[in-house]
Amino acid sequence: MPQTEKITISYLIEKKKKGEKITMVTAYDYPSARMLDEVGIDTVLVGDSLGMVVLGYESTIPVTMEEMIHHCKAVSRAVKRSFIIGDMPFMSYQISVEKAIENAGRFIKEGGCDAVKLEGGSEVAHIVKAIVDMGIPVCAHIGLTPQRATMLSGYKVQGKDVEAAKYLIKSAKDLEKAGAFMIVMECIPDVLARIITKQVGIPTIGIGAGKDCDGQVLVYHDILGLFEKFVPKFVKQYVNLSSQIKDALTKFKKEVESGEFPKPEHAFHMDPEEAKKLLED
Ligand code: KIV
Predict the structure, then answer these.
(1) Which of the following CATH numbers is that of domain 9-239: 3.40.228.10, 3.20.20.60, 3.20.20.10, 3.40.50.300?
(2) Mean pLDDT of the chain
(3) pTM for the structure as a whole
(4) Atom of ligand 1 nearest to the CA of 49
(5) Helical H runs in the chain?
(6) At residue 175, what are phi and psi to the nearest 5 degrees?
(7) Which helix or strand (DSSP H or E) is residue 117 part of?
(8) Which ligand 1 atom sits closest to the C-alpha of 117?
(9) What is the DSSP-derived secondary structure letter of residue 90?
(10) Active-site position among 110, 186, 257, 265
């Protein structure tokens, strides 16, 4: 039965138990969030991909708390039903546990989010626990963690050898133990994603992690063909809106320049008698 009420954590965990797939898409503004909510996407992620996709940064590193909160506010004003997750930007949770709790709280209190997401494996489990202990739900994020792309020597598939794979399995278990309610797994081999999904009780959401995760996430602009800089292998572009938008904008430019737009039906008209008096004046 389709869920019409606000999505909860227990609803998402129940979906995993029943083998029903969970959907997650990013949103950064009011109109996109409204559409995701209307079509019934389970979870809306205000990702720090905001930095690259919308703000034009080269990576997610420069994204600030203020930018994230600003966009979370727009998303939460639009969403009625989906579960909203705010992505903690680089250095908003690493400096100290106190700072992490304070910033996580801002996502809930100011941004209107239901939960936060932060990147990292076992090494951030103590931060996850501290935030969860304060009553703020945390979604973990393992595998390719873009905030550490330099340390990882680029945007590469993670967990390809047994040692690295075992660390990711341990991380998933440690993060579940720390209280994370969900784990995003980015760019890891499908067999590893399958193992982790079987071994943890919380939902796993894959992006470039194969079909056996409990759900899938993609960036809104990638699904719609709105981000032209590059298209990762794991993306399925369902429509190419960039070319459609450029076609429409080119037509507008031509019609304005040729005088074809606006037509009388796009203008406001005075009563003819009033217009006559005005013209005679
Ligand atoms: O920032 C983001 O959009 C993300 C997703 C790609 C999982 O972290």
Answers:
(1) 3.20.20.60
(2) 97
(3) 0.96
(4) 1
(5) 9-18, 30-39, 50-53, 65-78, 97-109, 125-133, 162-178, 190-199, 220-223, 241-258, 272-280
(6) -70, -35
(7) strand 115-119
(8) 8
(9) T
(10) 186
